[in-house]
Automatic annotation (TrEMBL):
EC code: 7.2.2.12
The protein's name in its UniProt record: P-type Zn(2+) transporter
UniProt-annotated stretches for the region Disordered: 97-117, 276-295
Keyword field: ATP-binding, Cell membrane, Membrane, Metal-binding, Nucleotide-binding, Phosphoprotein, Plasmid, Translocase, Transmembrane, Transmembrane helix
Subcellular location: Cell membrane
Basic and acidic residues bias locations: 97-110
Coiled coil: none
Pfam families: E1-E2_ATPase (PF00122), HMA (PF00403), Hydrolase (PF00702)
Length: 739
């Protein structure tokens, strides 16, 4: 449809519990004029599309979704209870007769307390199971007490009553131009069984279908709850300091720069910086790191982490909608739209699969009686059983169920991946390229030597700090920190800018001052033989050297050293054990790079500009699948060039936005954890596909041969769906860090 004047719209859709539900919602709105770019996220319960309101108003979208039995509400509005009698209402709806649930926040707002989910027997699907089960038991009782003819009608009545909501949904789908649904196949099969005189089996099939629907809903709810649990980590209130006193306020109302108190045992209500106090903070709810992290003035804390020892005063650095937990929830929710190639293939296959099975059922019903003189009743019965095998629910849910579980497990362990495409790509990784500074090393270099060529150390450091004021690169921050430690004020500077891969420059006292690598100084013709010798000597000690220049005149050298992370060598070992080749890419000088690389046992390429890192990644990609891990602005192009780009959690926002995944707890060994989780997920997906197709194939053959009938056929569908979902939920217990 034409959507040239369309705008992006978003709704929350409740009642979806399998892949076919999402497909039904998509199909219901895609056919409307002015609608495009339709995306339905099952676990996030999100419908987004581009809508031209001059052709279709938003109310028509909502009517179309409600017409097929789902609840729908605009983003930020209270979620709506689904109207379909056999659609499971969301767990936050304790009053099943209410039209709406208590208000639920939008994804980018602070979470509010939700009532506990009702017991299964209080849900619409649960009541349908109880009702159909009671009717079936009553019909069996009638067979024992009354004549066979009475029992026959009892089973027929049980079938019709239990089938009514299913048939109503099937007709709604048919009106939306979706005739090939499990509800339609169920309706045809059950009514057909009544016509050929098999009411007992028809009633049993309706009951088993209801049980399967209930189990699907419960399983999907568990997977969805595991993701939503993330948003409940942030406390509702915070102790805000105001005018010398404290008062309790809503955590989602905290503003930038405000100061809150976090007592021992309290959860931190915001992302912020500690300004007073020293305490251990348990960050395991956010990053999965089990050992409490020491926090002192200047340290950063995450919303949702737990203060364990002493009172902390924390300055708010991110609002509620932009804190770490909110960003994780947003990334996980949005990741569902980045579907894996396998999932897209399954979707295309399922659209052909169901009509093909329906056609096969028609052939089974007609060909043997007409051509071979078979019994019409017998072959019609087999065809009806074959219809029940035609729904691809288990196949459709096989991939997204595993992906949703993997995303949740990753988030709970400090590993964020932006969707199924990333997981599938990470599973096939053969090479991992690391940036050095801030990734393999701590990213906290310190000044070790200063060589003055003109002026004094104080003047040299003041000029360098003036140029590097506000720098995001660890080397620049270290220079500023050293100036602060010595009590030297940074020289006033204007027009500061980064020179990617080389350094930075600014105007001080009307003259351009540059702080950069020896290569930059060489390009400016600022190095003499004596200075080169001194630079080489410092670099041979594993130090990084920067040259401070006024114009093109060198004023001095500043040497810094950054130590490798404690787990860097172990990360290299773990990757090797997984059959993945690690490589270090750095813009640092070859001598320093070699000293670090030899200590870690890793190959390296040094002296790389940002464009050189991109070229190195592209060169590797020609014969391998590459993951790039970095943390700085200059790493962003390389992150984008790799099959999978991973940002360290301490990295810049640019790196985090560019990357396909993020490591929140700054552990290099988590690189191997991402690969392990991705491979476990793809193995789980293959198992699910084998379960779904295997059961279908077995019952397809046994049905055509007359070995199995209607009720085993429905088990082939609902049973396979439940097995696939439960198998996917096993990923929730997977530990990516396990060796």
């Amino acid at each position: 449809m034409s959507v040239g004047n369309g705008t992006q719209r978003e709704w929350r859709v409740t009642g979806m519990d399998c892949g076919s539900c999402a497909a039904k919602v998509r199909g219901a709105v895609e056919r409307l004029p002015g609608v495009g770019n339709v995306d339905v996220a099952l676990m996030a319960e999100r419908l987004t599309l581009t809508l031209d309101v001059t052709q279709t108003p938003p109310e028509s979208i909502e009517s179309a979704v409600r017409g097929i039995g789902f609840g729908i509400a605009p983003r930020g509005a209270p979620p709506e209870r689904p109207r379909g009698a056999f659609i499971l209402p969301e767990g936050a709806f304790p009053d099943m007769t209410a039209e709406h649930a208590p208000e639920s926040p939008a994804r980018d707002e602070a979470p509010s307390e939700e009532p506990a989910a009702p017991s299964w027997y209080r849900t619409a699907k649960g009541r349908l199971v109880i009702g159909t089960g009671t009717l079936l038991a009553a019909a069996w009782g009638a067979r024992l007490v009354f004549p066979a003819e009475v029992a026959h009608w009892a089973f027929a009545l049980a079938t019709l009553i239990g089938l009514f909501p299913v048939a109503r949904r099937a007709l709604a789908m048919a009106r939306s131009r979706m005739p090939f649904t499990i509800e339609m196949l169920m309706t045809i099969a059950a009514l057909g069984a009544l016509v050929i005189g098999a009411p007992e089996e028809a009633a049993l099939v309706v009951f088993l279908f209801a049980v399967g629907e209930l189990l699907e809903g419960v399983s999907a709810g568990k997977a969805r709850d595991s993701i939503r649990a993330l948003s409940k980590l942030v406390p509702k209130t915070a102790r805000l300091e105001l005018g010398g006193s404290t008062r309790e306020v809503a955590a989602d109302r905290l503003g930038l720069g405000q100061v809150v108190q976090v007592r021992p045992g309290d959860r931190v209500p915001c992302d912020g910086e500690v300004i007073e106090g020293t305490s251990g903070v348990d960050e395991s709810p956010v990053t999965g790191e089990s050992v409490p992290s020491l926090k002192e003035p200047g340290s950063q804390v995450f919303a949702g982490s737990i203060n364990t020892e002493a009172l902390l005063r924390v300055r708010v650095t991110r609002t509620a909608g932009d804190n770490t937990i909110a960003r994780i929830v947003r990334l996980v929710a949005e990741a569902e739209s980045a579907r894996a190639p396998t999932e897209r293939f399954i979707d295309r296959f399922s659209r052909v699969y169901m009509p093909a099975v329906v056609a096969a059922a028609l052939l089974v019903a007609l060909v043997p009686p007409l051509v071979l003189g078979g019994d019409w009743g017998d072959w019609t019965y087999r065809a009806l059983a074959l219809l029940l095998i035609g729904c691809p629910c288990a196949l459709v849910i096989s991939v997204p169920a595993s992906i949703a579980s993997a995303l949740s497990t990753g988030a709970r362990n400090g590993l964020l991946m932006k969707g199924g495409r990333v997981i599938e790509a990470a599973a096939g990784i053969t090479h991992v390229a690391f940036d050095k500074t801030g990734t393999l090393t701590l990213g906290r270099p310190r000044v070790t030597d200063m060589v003055v060529l003109a002026g004094s150390e104080a003047e040299l450091l003041a000029l360098a700090a003036g140029v590097e004021t506000g720098a995001s690169h660890p080397l620049g921050q270290a220079i500023c920190a050293e100036a602060g430690r010595r009590g030297i004020a940074a020289a006033p500077a204007t027009g500061g800018r980064a020179l990617p891969g080389k350094g930075a420059e600014a105007v001080i006292g009307g003259v351009t001052v540059r702080v950069g690598s020896p290569r930059l100084a060489e390009e400016r013709g600022a190095l003499e033989d004596g200075v080169r010798t001194r630079v080489a000597a410092l670099e041979a000690e594993g130090k990084t050297v920067v040259v401070v220049m006024r114009g093109d005149v060198p004023l001095g050298l500043i040497a810094l050293r950054d130590e490798p992370r404690a787990d860097a060598a172990e990360a290299v070992r773990q990757l090797g054990a997984l059959g993945v080749s690690p490589l270090m890419l750095t813009g640092d000088n070859p001598r320093t790079a070699q000293a670090i690389a030899e200590g870690l046992g890793i190959d390296h390429r040094a002296g790389l500009m940002p464009e050189d890192k991109v070229a190195a990644i592209r060169d590797l990609r020609s014969g391998a699948r590459v993951m790039m891990i970095g943390d700085g602005i200059n790493d962003a192009p390389a992150l984008a060039a790799a099959q999978v780009g991973v940002a360290m959690g301490s990295g810049t926002d640019v790196a985090l936005e560019t990357a396909d995944a993020a490591i929140l707890r700054n552990r290099v060994t988590d690189a191997a954890g991402i690969v392990r989780l991705a491979r476990a997920t793809m193995a789980n997906i293959r198992q699910n596909i084998a379960i779904a197709l295997g059961l279908k194939a077995v019952f397809l053959v046994t049905t055509v041969l007359g070995i199995t009938g209607l009720w085993p056929a429905i088990l082939a569908d609902t049973g396979a769906t439940v097995l696939v979902t439960m198998n996917a939920l096993r990923l929730l217990t997977f530990r990516p860090s396990a060796l």
